[in-house]
Amino acid sequence: MANDLIIGNISTALAVNQKPEYSVMLKNIDQKLPAVVRDTSNFHKSHSQFMQVTLDVTAITPIRSIKHTLAEIDRTRSALQEAYISIRKKQVDLKRKEKELEEATDSLDREYIEIEILELNSHLEGTQNHINGALRKMNFLVNQHEQLLQVIGRTEITEEDYEKEEARYHIMTCMKQALSAARSRNGMIDEGNLIYLFDLGINAAQAQAEMFAYLNMENQLISNGNAPTHEMTMRWLEACADKWHNDPEKFAQRRGFSIFDKSSLTNILTYDKPAEEA
Questions:
Q1: Sign of the torsion angle spanned by Cα atoms 178, 183, 184, 185
Q2: Whole-number Å distance between alpha carbons of 98 and 102
Q3: Which of 172, 181, 259, 267 shows the greatest Cβ crowding within 10 Å of its Cβ?
């Protein structure tokens, strides 16, 4: 590999005035580098699969999770396209340099071209490593996309699906954030999420009452020697969304807006149509 070759030849390149201990270090690196390169090939990607589904895609509702997953796929696909173009250009440059080397007669010209060829091979190797990591990431994400569709019992989602889930997503996200803030504020929702609730058309006093009730339930469980669970929190958030999912639309209508305009969508839920219209 190009980088192995570079490391292997550094000792020769730095031979002038080089201290003996560096030769020992370079020899040690040269011997152990193949194992390092082998193990490094497991990475060359920005995040682990664990991080991608827990810390990168943090959407709390299914379709928002699909949206964020698709966005990650799109970013990775774009990066792969750019890397492919880059690697093709370098391959052409490498062919040109190899042709120049064949035709060169001056010894210094040949030596310099050989260095340029080594540099191009090094860049190609690095780019290929990142392409391999991106391919593994993209394969993981497309599998996650398929799995998410299976979870909601669908083979595809539409723009209408996305729009109709938005109210639930924002209510659950707001209350998730409010709960995190309330845990360190004696049960009180913070100002930022109070504003979020107002913009969603949800009465903040009602939300605060729900917060107190939920935290009290958790405290009772702990007092009785039981442990609250994350699943319990998720069910509470879903119940909040069930309770208030119409409030954002009512508030939008009060201000003269229509929160959902089917005529402005690129695709609609054809399975909701009568059979003769589908």
A1: positive
A2: 6
A3: 172
